[in-house]
Every structure is written in C-alpha cells, then in structure tokens.
Description:
By secondary structure, the chain is mostly helical. The protein is 72% helix and 0% strand. The protein is globular. The relative contact order is 0.12.
Amino acid sequence: MFDISNLILWVPGLLLALTVHEYSHGRVAYALGDPTPKRAGRLTLNPISHLDVMGTIAIFLFHIGWAKPVPINPYFFKNPRRDIVLVSIAGPAANFFAALASGIILKILTMLGQYHSYLWLMFLYTMDINVILMVFNLIPIPPLDGSKVLFNLANMRESTIFTMERIGPPILFAVIFLGALSGFNILWIIIYPAVMTFHLFFA
C-alpha cells in the first residue's frame, strides 16, 4: 500500500487517466453522431462526472479499478460495427497519449536534474497508471473495451456475445480479487511488459 505522501502524488495521475479515458469514449461517440454522452453530461474533463464509487474503491484496495462507463447508443452510428470499435479504442488510445506525454515530461525533468523529485515521481505515477489502464482495458473480457473490439472485428454471433457479456464481469472480478488475496496477479503478467517498456524509454 502507498503511504500518504505517495498517495498525494498518485491521485492526480489516477484522476487524469480515468477522466481522459471516459471523456475520449464520449467525444468520439459524439463525433460519430451519438448525442447520448453529451445528454448524459459526460463530455467534460471534470473527474467527478466520471468516477464510479465501486471502481474507485477497487483501485485503492486492489490497484485495479474502473470509472463510470459513458453511455453509448450505437443506433445513432452510421456504421455501428466500425464505430463501436473506434469508440472502444478511443479510451485506451487517450491513455497511451497521456502516458507518452507524461513520459516526455519525465525525461525532461531528468535532464533538468529533477530525478526522483516529488514532481518527477508524480509524472512517473501518471505514466504508469495510464499504461496500466490502457492495457487493462484492451483485455478482451467483458465489460472491458477490448471485448467490444473483439466482438465487432470477429463478427461474433449475438448468442456468443450475450453469453460472454454475462460471464465476463464475474470472471474478471474473481481474477482481480483472487490475485489481490494470493499475491499472484494474472493481469499484472499481461500489464507488466508494457509498463517496463515505458520505463525503459522514459524512466
């Protein structure tokens, strides 16, 4: 667990990661003709509009969590299959660019002699959190973004999608919970290489 000083440095990156992720989903959906995110008040960079109570608690308990999903109505899309994929990858893409920007700032701070300063650590955490959220959401298990990409690119039958959407969330929660209890986190095995790649280039 983080001590209070690390927590203070960790929270800004968390809020940024969750906010840009959900905002990007909504912004792309709106650009593709769906007014639902705007009507729901989700086209905002205010973190409060995007936080989910249980998802936030899970982040502090298990270091893996989620924000409140942006409501999307695919009936407004001209090409639903393609547009759902675009909306789904918008969130992870936003996290990638946020991580990249944080990494560049991290590199600049290192060059300025600020290595391991509080500001340096804050951007390190911001980079890491965005990478973690990006990779986590690309895992093709419902309700994560990767599942929507998989369903539409693979042109799966509705019955298969329905079954996976029903069993996916309990499986995902079980993996997170059991990983936290046992100390063996399968998800971290997937996420760790991406985090280390960003460290290699920027930290």
